[in-house]
Amino acid sequence: MKSIRLTKRAAALAASFAAVAAVMGTSGPAHAAEYTVMDNCDVPWITCSYGDLWLFYNSKDIAVQDGYIKSAFTTYYSNVSDHWGTSQYQGSSLTTYRYVFGNGGNGNGQYMKNNAASVQNCARDDNYRVYYNSGYGGTSQYFAKNGPYGDCNLTNLISALKNNNASSHFA
Prior knowledge:
The chain is built from 2 helices and 12 strands. The protein is α+β, with helices and mostly antiparallel strands. The strands form 4 sheets. The chain has a 4-stranded antiparallel β-sheet, with no helix packed on it. The protein has a 3-stranded mixed β-sheet with strand order 1-7-6, with no helix packed on it. It has a 3-stranded antiparallel β-sheet with strand order 10-9-12, with no helix packed on it.
């Protein structure tokens, strides 16, 4: 009688193991891809025109000298809730785009979040705010749309936001 119970338990255990193995064997591996971009409009699931808000790695005195851009920068158009990047599942694959400074110069290739020192708003119609926290929270600084002559004023971030920038939003 005792051996029948053990045999039934062993059979049940073997059946459970086989079921788990079958499920694990048929599920494909999850894939993840990560890319770097210097403009949020380069992210396939974001629909926008190209960047009006420019964030520079250096303060304005170093970023632009004699009319030439010397600092790496990144550009945004639209709301960006996290300067670290954005992710989306596409089927079973997770795709992530990280925002980095680009175009050569100081800071080229560095991650954008918490690394910007100055901002230039070149939008004709849109004002922006840059925030201390992801999700548009905490201390912020306002940047008005460009002037009537297309002048994109380059402004240093306030001390609370310099190298502490985490999100940006239409204002």
